[in-house]
Amino acid sequence: MYNRKKRNTFRGLLFVLPSMAGVMVFILVPYLDVVRRSFTGAVSKRFTGFQNYSTVLTNPAFHLACKNTARFAAVCIPILIVLSLAIAVFLHRQGRWGHRLKSAYLVPMAIPAASVVLIWRLVFDNHGLLNGLLSWLHAGTVNWMNTGAAFWVLVFSYIWKNLGYDVILWIAGLGTIPESIYEAARVDGAGEWDLFFRITLPNLFPALYTITVLSFLNSFKVFREAYLVAGNYPDDSMYLLQHLYNNWFRDLSMDKMAAGAVLMTVVVSLLVLLLQKAWGRDVE
Amino acid sequence: MKKYIIWAVLFAVGFLACYPVLFLTAGSLMGQTELRELLGPVLSGSGGYVRFPLMSLYPTLRNYVGVLMDSPEFFVMFWNSVKTVAGILAGQLLVSVPAAWGFARYDFPCKSALFTLYILLMMMPFQVTMLSGYLVLDKLQLLDTLWAVILPGVFSTFPVFLIYRFFVGIPQAIIESARIDGAGELQIFMSFGLRLGAPGILSAMVLGFLEYWNLIEQPLTYIKDKSLWPLSLYLPNIGLEEAGTAFAASLLTLVPAMLVFLGGQDYLEQGIMAAAVKE
Question: How far is CA A191 from the centre of its chain?
Answer without folding.
Answer: 35
